[in-house]
């Protein structure tokens, strides 16, 4: 079986070549970043985003086709996501409360979710 080609180490300033799958040479193997969840995430259907949600989402986007955040900035952008204004955190009463829904474009939804969930280096709210 052929050997994996050598690649440069991902560590800053290191020019050592290696064949490790983690991207670091043996000297910098301790710098491998691993993402470990506290508990495994349930499937989207188990979290409430099944067929019923897909139908409700599609209907909401027909009635509210523009991104709410972009409209506040004077832009006209087509919404692709239905967002829960206040995170439901598994509470199905809050999940299905349509007054808690807003239409957002993908970039606005990603930024809002990252700010709430601690993504992109933000503190978890």
TrEMBL record:
Keywords: Endonuclease, Hydrolase, Nuclease. GO terms for molecular function: endonuclease activity. Residues 55-110 form the HNH nuclease domain. It comes from the Bacteria. The keyword Plastid does not apply. Pfam families: HNH. Belongs to the HNH nuclease family. PANTHER family: HNH NUCLEASE YAJD-RELATED (PTHR41286:SF1). This is Putative HNH nuclease YajD. It comes from Pseudomonas arcuscaelestis.
């Amino acid at each position: 079986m052929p050997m994996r080609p050598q690649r440069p180490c991902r560590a800053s300033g290191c020019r050592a070549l290696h064949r490790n799958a983690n991207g670091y040479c043996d000297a910098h193997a301790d710098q491998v970043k691993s993402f470990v969840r506290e508990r495994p995430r349930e499937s989207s259907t188990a979290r409430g985003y099944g067929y019923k949600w897909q139908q409700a989402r599609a209907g909401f986007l027909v009635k509210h086709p523009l991104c709410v955040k972009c409209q506040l900035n004077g832009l006209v952008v087509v919404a692709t996501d239905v967002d829960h204004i206040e995170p439901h955190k598994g509470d199905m009463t809050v999940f299905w409360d349509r007054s808690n829904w807003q239409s957002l474009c993908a970039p606005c939804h990603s930024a809002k979710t990252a700010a709430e969930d601690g993504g992109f280096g933000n503190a978890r709210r």
